[in-house]
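Exercise 7. Predict the structure of LysR family transcriptional regulator from Xaviernesmea rhizosphaerae.
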Amino acid sequence: MNPIEPSWDHYRTFLHVLREGSLSAAARTLGLTQPTVGRHIDALEAAAGAPLFLRSATGLTPTDAALTLAPFAEEIAASAAAFLRTAASARGPMAGRVRISASEVMAIEVIPAILAQLAEQHPQLVLELSVSDMVEDLLRHEADVAVRMVAPQQEALVSRALGTLEVGLFAHHRYIARHGLPQTEADLADHRVIGFDRNSAFLQAVRRRVPILDQLSFALRTDSNLAQLSAVRAGFGIGACQVRLAERDPDLRRVLGEHFSFPLPTYLVMHENLRSVPRCRAVFDALAEGLSVYIAGRTAGAREGLEAGR
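Solution. The predicted structure, encoded as tokens:
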């Protein structure tokens, strides 16, 4: 006899028990009673034909079966969130939530101004901004629209190439006043250089273009691009920055411009199923326009146009 198929609520309960480590903590998070949470887990274990948690005095420990099933429960939760965001569009053509994924620098330094104008045009939109340098999975509905620095590979994604951002080396005028400007790549060895803490794919690509970096000992290491930018602005030393972003700050001066230039292709991406959802399309189009202006460096005319539209 086949077991009764568990309710979708049971998968949500499983996920919260996995995260919280106990039935009681999961019950408080979900607003359920502890016996109800226990029955959900019992039903899932009966359907799976294997125990999902080992009970002890200190709480619940997930079994190998639970850890194997966890990614599927995460996908169900992400799909449920996307379902609610899509269903919210029934309240109006430009109402509801749209979740945007972007890197630290773009999300904090560039995108808020674009979203501010969008919010003025469509006040019923609820915008969620996920700030991470990790590539979130749009196929699993971790975000609705994403700004990426790598070309998407999945066929189910709609993408628009926005152009290429240039990354260069910059230093604050205070640092330059104290330490001078390096005239050659070799001179960097005598300066405080800001770099990554780990040998990321981006750093490997930069090192192939600028071999001198392999000979440098970074004075400050951090994997946060935003922390690196803050250190440059504080006058700590020489570090990488988007050229367009540095152009906004008169206190920053480019270093070794003829030697260090790294291209950063930029793409706007969303799931093809969201193209017909008005609020998602509105966010996609607004980001496409605003980021294209930023990348092209049309700062003066673009700013006047944005102000006129407000």
